[in-house]
Specification:
This protein is of the alpha/beta class. It is built from 6 helices and 10 strands. Bound molecules: guanosine-5'-monophosphate (5GP).
């Protein structure tokens, strides 16, 4: 997605050789019009898939998932990160290693919101080593639902997630794939 690549080049900041900060349109301040365009692009790519639910992970996946879901007219379910008293006792649970926080955490989805008839599209902001996506995939499988694909806004192609997921037969659509990056310099895959 050319407009996304241009926005990353003009507004993104490479913090170290493996962390990209896009706080002014995706991860802190939200550029809603632009995220809406991202949603439209995911809808175009997955339109044949008869998606019944979009699954993401709190917090940064929610905006992208919500603006994508309006095109499919389906609900968004977001996996919660911490033990919560409000959460139904009947939950699907998985473990994720956080790339940015360098620690493990649990994710949970109430059994009420995923069922075996669901055709699920996973949406997330970044793909690095694939741990978040694999945790969400695990939850889809626990529910007996069908994972139809994964939509990623920014994939860091030099990390292992994309390879692991595609090798396991999952359709992964990333709107921008970064081949290499360093402070002040980002190279995309064509
Ligand atoms: P993974 O689970 O694929 O290793 O990492 C993906 C998750 O970590 C995403 O949900 C995202 O929130 C976070 N993440 C990974 N790399 C980056 C990055 O370079 N920048 C930002 N802002 N978040 C990242």
């Amino acid at each position: 997605m050319q407009t996304l690549k241009e926005k990353i080049l003009t507004e993104g900041k490479v913090l170290s050789n493996d962390i990209l900060k896009v706080d002014n349109f995706l991860n802190h301040q939200l550029d809603v019009d632009f995220i809406n365009e991202i949603g439209r692009e995911f809808a175009r790519r997955f339109k044949e898939e008869e998606i019944s639910k979009i699954l993401t992970i709190e917090a940064s996946g929610i905006a992208v998932a919500a603006l994508t879901a309006q095109y499919f007219k389906v609900p968004v379910v977001f996996a919660k990160k911490a033990e919560s008293k409000n959460l139904d006792e009947e939950v699907y649970k998985s473990e994720v290693f956080s790339f940015t926080k360098d620690k493990n955490y649990s994710i949970m989805v109430s059994k009420k919101y995923l069922n075996p008839e669901d055709r699920v599209l996973i949406i997330d902001d970044f793909l690095a080593n694939g741990r978040a996506a694999l945790g969400l995939k695990d939850i889809v499988e626990q529910a007996g639902a069908r994972l139809v694909g994964i939509g990623i806004v920014i994939e860091k192609g030099f990390q292992s997630g994309g390879k692991i997921l595609r090798k396991s037969g999952i359709r992964v659509e990333s709107l921008a794939i970064i081949n290499t990056m360093s402070p002040g310099h980002i190279v995309f895959q064509d």
